[in-house]
Amino acid sequence: MPFEKLSEERKGESSITIRKRVTAARELQSARFTEFENVHYNAQMSVKQIRTFCKLSKESLSLLKTAMEKLNLSARAYDRILKVSRTICDLANEDNISPEHIAEAIQYRSLDREGWLG
Q1: pTM for this structure?
Q2: Is there a domain that residue 3 lies in?
Q3: Boundaries of domain holding 40
Q4: For 76-83, which contacts have Cβ atoms below 8 Å and span 24 or more sequence positions?
């Protein structure tokens, strides 16, 4: 993120606004998985469901492939990145996973691998 964005003196989203987005995303996910027993949220998706609900554009797929190769990520990490990307997409109230959603999910994965303390 550019320094200018980080150093802006504008307020971020209020807790109420964030809560509304999270609630809407959870409701969207619950509706998505109504026909599946014991699946209510993206984190609970099986591999088959990931392939169904996490379709990627060529650009998104290329970005994910590059990250997989450069970061030496596992198949398990691939699935987790897709689940997180789907959730980021849901929070943005968008239908399709974009390269920006993939990039954000990869960043979270990178932080997870490195640990928060460096």
Answers
A1: 0.84
A2: no
A3: 13-114
A4: 77/109, 79/47, 79/50, 80/109, 81/105, 81/106, 81/109, 82/50, 82/54, 82/56, 83/42, 83/43, 83/45, 83/50, 83/54
pLDDT in tens, 47-102: 999 999 999 999 999 999 999 999 999 999 999 999 999 999 999 999 999 999 99
CATH number of the structural domain spanning residue 72: 1.10.8
- Contact assessment for residue 53 and residue 32, using Cβ atoms and an 8 Å cutoff: yes
Total domains in the fold of the chain: 1
Residue-wise pLDDT for 6-48, tens only, equals 667 667 788 999 999 999 999 999 999 999 999 999 999 999 9
Q: What residue type is assigned to position 91 of the chain?
A: L
